[in-house]
Design brief:
about 375 residues, alpha/beta, 4-stranded parallel sheet, 9 helices, 19 strands, about 30% helix, binds flavin-adenine dinucleotide
C-alpha cells in the first residue's frame, strides 16, 4: 500500500492547485483521478463556454493564465492552461483511479482505490460537483418522446437547429445554453421556476467579479444595497420579461443560499427581443412536450435540464459524517474540518469567483496540512504510518 503524506482526490483545478501547494510545503502527495486526463470536467463542458470570471482572477497558485488568452479564456484555452500547470509543477496524477471511499484507519485515513489504495494522514477532497447532476422528475416524463438531457451532457446547438428546445433553469449554464441554441437556429423557450438575479458580466467595462472582490469585506446586504441602483440601470426591468426578481441581492444570495447569480452574456437581450421565450415552472410532461404550471401545453423536441448539481459525499466519506450536512454537502471548505487531516478545496460557492476561491483555498489547505502533519509527527513519534 502507498503511504504518501497526502492524497488529493481529483485532478481538476482544485486538485491540481492543492497538490501544487502541498508539494510546495515539502509534502509528498498522491493525486488520484478517475478520469484519464487533468481537467476532465472542463474537457466535457459545452463547446462555446468561456470563463465568466476574468483571467486575472481565475489563475491557480503559482502560474498565471497567459494574457494572450484574453479577458475571458475559452474552455479549450483553460484546459491547455490546466495541462501546462500540471507540467510546470511536475504534478503527475494517477489516472483511471476512482476513489470508492475514504475510511478512518487509526490516526490516519485509508483511501480505497483498488491497486492505487493508500494510507495517509492527510486527504484533500477536490471532487467538484460534476458527478451529481440534479435531475428533477415530473409526472409524464417517462412517456416524453423527445430528448431529455442534463446541461452537463450538452455540447452545442447544431443537433437542435430548426427544432423546439426547452431549457429548464436560468442559472449560468441555462442562460448560455439558451443563447447557444437560439444562435444555432433552434426555437427556444426557457422554463424559469424561481426568482432570479441577473448581473451583467461586465459593468462600465469592468468585470462584475472585480466589483465583488473590491467589496468583499462589506457585509453582503450592504454591498447589495450600494450596488442596487447601478445594477437596476444596467439590467433593466426583468419583470416585464416574465421573470421574477429574487428578494435577496446577489451577494446575499451567494452567501446565504450558495446560489450564484446569472452573469449575463446575451440571453436577456434575446428574451427582450422575443427570440427566447420565458415561461414559468413545468407542471408535467406530455408525450410531445410539457404543460406549464401557469397553464398551456407546448410541444418540444428536446428538453435540456440546466438544473444544477447536488453534490452528496456521504458514500465517499462514510466515516466523516461530522463534516457533511444532512444532504452530504461539505459544511466547510478551504480550511480545517472537524475531522483531523481531512480537507475540502473549492467545495462551496464564492461571490468572488470559484476559481479565485480555489486558489485561496488550496493555499490555505497546503499550509494547514503542513502544520497538521508537523504536530502529528511530534505527537506520534515516528509518524503515523
Ligand atoms: C459550466 C461551468 C462553468 C464554470 N465557469 C466558471 C468560471 O468561469 N469561473 C469560476 O471561477 N468558476 C467557474 N465554474 C465553477 C468551478 O470553478 C468549476 O466547476 C471548477 O471546475 C471546479 O473545479 P474542481 O477541481 O473543484 O472540480 P472539477 O473540475 O469538477 O474536477 C473534479 C475532478 O475530480 C474527479 N473525481 C470526482 N470524483 C472522484 C472520485 N471518487 N475518485 C477520483 N476522482 C474523482 C473528476 O474526475 C474531476 O476530474 C464553472 C462551473 C461550471 C459547471
Amino acid at each position: 500500500m502507498l503511504t504518501p503524506d497526502a492524497v488529493v482526490i481529483g485532478a481538476g483545478p482544485a486538485g491540481l492547485a492543492a497538490a501544487q501547494r502541498l508539494n510546495a510545503s515539502g509534502l509528498t502527495s498522491l493525486v488520484l483521478d478517475k478520469a484519464d486526463a487533468v481537467g476532465a470536467v472542463w474537457r466535457r463542458h459545452y463547446d462555446r463556454l468561456h470563463l465568466h470570471t476574468p483571467r486575472i482572477h481565475s489563475s491557480l497558485p503559482g502560474l498565471r493564465i497567459p494574457s494572450a488568452y484574453g479577458r475571458y479564456p475559452s474552455r479549450a484555452q483553460f484546459v491547455d492552461y490546466l495541462e501546462s500547470y500540471a507540467k510546470r509543477f511536475k504534478l503527475a496524477p494517477t489516472f483511471n483511479a476512482p476513489v470508492a471511499a475514504v475510511k478512518r484507519d487509526g490516526e490516519a485515513w485509508r483511501v480505497e482505490a483498488g491497486e492505487h489504495s493508500a494510507r495517509t494522514p492527510i486527504v484533500v477532497v477536490a471532487t467538484g460537483w460534476a458527478d451529481f447532476p440534479n435531475q428533477p422528475r415530473w409526472p409524464g416524463m417517462a412517456d416524453f418522446q423527445g430528448d431529455i438531457l442534463h446541461s452537463s451532457a450538452y455540447r452545442n446547438g447544431a443537433p437542435y437547429a430548426g427544432k423546439r428546445a426547452l431549457v429548464v433553469g436560468f442559472g449560468n449554464s441555462g442562460a448560455e445554453i439558451a443563447l447557444d441554441l437560439c444562435e444555432a437556429g433552434a426555437d427556444v423557450t426557457l422554463s424559469v421556476r424561481s426568482p432570479v438575479r441577473i448581473l451583467p458580466r461586465d459593468l462600465l467595462g469592468v468585470p462584475i467579479v472585480s466589483f465583488a472582490i473590491a467589496q468583499r469585506f462589506l457585509p453582503a446586504r450592504v454591498a447589495d444595497a450600494i450596488n442596487a441602483p447601478i445594477l437596476r440601470m444596467s439590467v433593466g426591468s426583468i419583470e416585464k420579461l416574465g421573470l421574477k426578481k429574487a428578494a435577496k441581492g446577489p451577494m446575499q444570495m451567494i452567501e446565504e443560499d450558495g446560489r450564484v447569480p446569472v452573469l449575463d452574456i446575451g440571453a436577456v437581450k434575446k428574451i427582450r427581443e422575443g427570440a427566447i421565450k420565458a415561461r414559468g415552472a413545468i407542471e408535467r410532461f406530455t408525450r410531445n412536450g410539457v404543460v406549464f404550471a401557469e397553464g398551456g401545453a407546448e410541444p418540444f423536441d428536446a428538453v435540456i435540464l440546466a438544473t444544477g448539481f447536488k453534490p452528496d459525499l456521504r458514500r465517499l466519506l462514510p466515516d466523516a459524517a461530522g463534516v457533511l450536512d444532512a444532504n452530504g454537502r461539505p459544511l466547510t471548505s478551504d480550511q480545517p474540518t472537524a475531522e483531523p487531516g481531512l480537507y475540502f478545496v473549492g467545495a462551496i460557492a464564492s461571490p468572488t469567483g470559484q476559481l479565485r476561491q480555489i486558489r485561496l483555498g488550496a493555499t490555505r489547505v497546503g499550509a494547514e496540512a503542513r502544520r497538521f502533519l508537523a504536530e502529528e509527527r511530534t505527537t506520534f513519534a515516528g509518524g503515523v504510518r
